[in-house]
Amino acid sequence: WQRRVHGDPTFIGSICMAPSKTSAPATTVPMKGVAPALVPVLAKEGKGQPTIGDIKRAIPEHLFRRSLLRSMSHVALDLLEAVAAVFLVLTFVHTSTSPIVFWGGWALYAFYQGATFTGLWVLAHECGHGGFSDSVLINDTVGYILHTMLFVPYAAWQASHSKHHHYTNNMVKDEPFVPTKLSEGEPAPRPNFFATLFNMVIMLTIGWPLYLAVNASGPPKTRLVSHYDPSAPF
């Protein structure tokens, strides 16, 4: 992968492929504008594609170390921001007699709090992947509490999400993004602006709850599948 942005002040370098047909240790090259920092050069293998091992070896070792203190500090900060937002909206917005302040403030609160809660969801997501800490017990405990706060069934989501990563972009076995199949001989629909806009609005509003509740956008099942059903085949 190589990033080329001429004149971009944020440009710091690139990861390049070494012209080798065999696997070789990752080396480093100087990065423009960040000397003496180094960026890995991935070795090619086989038909010129780096393996997963090549990519992992090119990542600095310290980035694989988990810090429970740092992880918990992110949780504490997000919770503090959420509580502060509730306090501000109830103190200054909810009591306002101005319709503009009342409705505008609540709209701003919804946007801000939604972003904050998404941050909490992502932290629980890292718990599900085992990246929050070195302890499985801590990961599952924190993930369960945070996702339960957000009405997400942690264990069922963790199972289906693991399947999603195993079958990413598989047209049949992927979990949350399986395209609708056309009938035999049915022509593919033409791109439509309004249909696309409608799908985007649905996805960004009720798409996630629908996926959890009734497996919307998921693979076909022989019966109704819900993440809230303990007997779901995840």
Please outline the helices and strands.
Layout: E1 16-18, E2 27-30, E3 38-43, H1 52-58, H2 68-93, H3 99-129, H4 136-149, H5 154-166, H6 193-214
Parallel strand pairs: 1-3
Antiparallel strand pairs: 2-3
Helix pairs in contact: 2-3, 3-4, 3-5
Walk me through the structure.
This protein is mainly α and 234 residues long. It is 48% helix and 6% strand. It has helices at 52-58, 68-93, 99-129, 136-149, 154-166, 193-214; strands at residues 16-18, 27-30, 38-43. A three-stranded mixed β-sheet has the order 1-3-2, covered by helices on one side. The chain is globular and about 60 Å long. Mean pLDDT is 82; it is low at 1-39.
Give the rounded overall mean pLDDT. 82
Tally of DSSP β-strands: 3
Strand arrangement within the widest β-sheet reads 1-3-2
**Largest sheet properties:** 3 strands, mixed
What is the element string, with H for helices and E for strands? EEEHHHHHH
Oligomeric composition of the shown chains? single chain
What is the rounded distance between the termini? Answer: 35 Å
Helix content: 40-55%
Task: Give unreliable regions as ranges.
Answer: 1-39
Number of helices: 6
Estimate the strand proportion.
5-15%
Cα-atom radius of gyration: 23 Å
Shape summary? globular
Structural class given helices, strands, pairing? Answer: mainly alpha
